[in-house]
Amino acid sequence: MTQRRLPSGQGPTRRPGSGGRPTASRTRNTGPIRVPSSRRTQGSGSEKGGAAAERTDAPRPRALTGRATILIAVFVALALAYTYPLRVYLEQETQIAQMENDQDRQRGDIAATAKELEKWQDDEYLRIQAREKYFYVRPGETPLLVYYDAAGAARDADEKTPAAAPDRWYDTLWSSVQAANAEPAN
């Protein structure tokens, strides 16, 4: 008795009762054995000395069926249909975030302006600002304004005025050329 091989090319399966542990049969019922038409005309297997009929390979199922192709096409169409609304959505989210940032900045400006306005409501702050910016004084006070005058400070300190900056080299050269030209000829 010959042992059958599995379609995957593995070795023989163990059959219950043939020793060892019993396992489930891994063969599947593929229907009747297909015999090529040339063999049918020659006679049955018993006429050839009992040889077993030759099996033909069953057609392999296609990797991509019609349903799978349609499903993939539907997914691609849906993906293409959702790209534009998704892009618009993301642009709107960006605009919303930008507007919120602008609003936060404006709220900060408003708060700073309100704080400045609150300062100007205080009488003492008004006096300080009038004194610093407009040189206002209270009745009975004598204002003292100090201006920086370098020449007057040097004169008052009995110091010489600062020396003039030296001439540039090309001015010195030109003045020597003019002096040489002004000498009387002997």
UniProtKB/TrEMBL annotation:
Pfam families: DivIC. Keywords: Cell cycle, Cell division, Membrane, Transmembrane, Transmembrane helix. The chain crosses the membrane at residues 64-84. Residues 7-26, 43-53 have a biased composition (Low complexity). GO terms for biological process: cell division. Residues 1-60 are annotated as: Disordered. This is Cell division protein FtsB. It comes from Actinoplanes lutulentus. The lineage of its organism: Bacteria, Bacillati, Actinomycetota, Actinomycetes, Micromonosporales.
